[in-house]
Amino acid sequence: GAEDVLHDLGAISIISSDSQAMGRVGEVILRTWQTAHVMKRRRGALPGDGRADNHRVRRYVAKYTINPAVAQGLDREIGSVRTGKLADLVLWEPAFFGVKPLLVIKGGQIAYAQMGDANASIPTPQPVLPRPMYGAVGRAPAANSVNFVAPLAIEDGLPDRLGLGKRFVAIASTRAVTKADMRENDARPDVAIDPDSFAVRVDGELIESVPAAELPMAQRYFLF
């Protein structure tokens, strides 16, 4: 529908999960790339994009990485792979991109990985499932994560009182954050909605909603 087109234009900057309604936190990445697929089929390549769709890929990656971090005042610590930030890296086999991560690397340590039965005697046992690795046990989780709190909490001595192993980080102010700060998603088209028919026009163009007949990354990937 119109929401998908607005995402593809970069007018909606963030894809996130809901609580008890339409979205699930475990489906954010999956739904993001399903949306990108449907939009590529319907709207073609974005201006300046070639067959690799680099512009569209950057736009959709930003929707669930750097833009939520910017909007919530967390981008000094997380949200992108840069020197000095806490890096969260997800590696995929191309055939399972967006569906089943091969490795999840947190702060340089492997936290989760696809692994078969540890008791097996062959190198390719089934079922292969995401399992916790050494980066998810012991003191590693505390060393590779932070507690985001209000600046006043740190000034009030909350970290010392709690005595946790995690580092405390103050959330940055977001009062001056604007649409222009949304990476790859700063479009501000004119959106008009007819109050009677609910027809949506974006910059004067009628957006027609057609249900997708088929989606990638669906049931066939989840036999187990």
Structure write-up:
- The chain has 224 residues and is an alpha+beta fold.
- The protein has seven helices and nine strands; from the N terminus they run ααααββββαβααββββ.
- It has helices at residues 2-9, 28-43, 54-63, 66-71, 140-143, 151-155, 158-162; strands at residues 88-91, 103-106, 109-115, 129-132, 146-149, 167-170, 191-193, 200-202, 205-207.
- The longest helix is centred in the first third of the chain and has 16 residues, at 28-43.
- The chain is globular, with a radius of gyration of 21 Å.
- The two termini are 31 Å apart.
Oligomer state of the chains in this structure: single chain
Counted by DSSP, the helix tally is 7
Q: Can you give the mean pLDDT?
A: 92
Which spans have pLDDT < 50 for at least 5 consecutive residues?
none
Number of strands: 9
Radius of gyration (CA) equals 21 Å
| Class of secondary structure makeup | alpha+beta
Fraction of residues in β-strands: 15-25%
The tally of domains stands at 2
Order of helices and strands: HHHHEEEEHEHHEEEE
Overall shape: it is globular
Biggest sheet: strand arrangement: 1-2-3-4
Give the % helix.
10-25%
Largest sheet geometry: 4 strands, antiparallel
Distance between the amino and carboxyl termini: 31 Å
Describe the structure concisely.
By secondary structure, the chain is an alpha+beta fold. It has helices at 2-9, 28-43, 54-63, 66-71, 140-143, 151-155, 158-162; strands spanning 88-91, 103-106, 109-115, 129-132, 146-149, 167-170, 191-193, 200-202, 205-207. The protein folds into two domains: 2-72 and 174-218, no CATH class; 87-137, no CATH class.
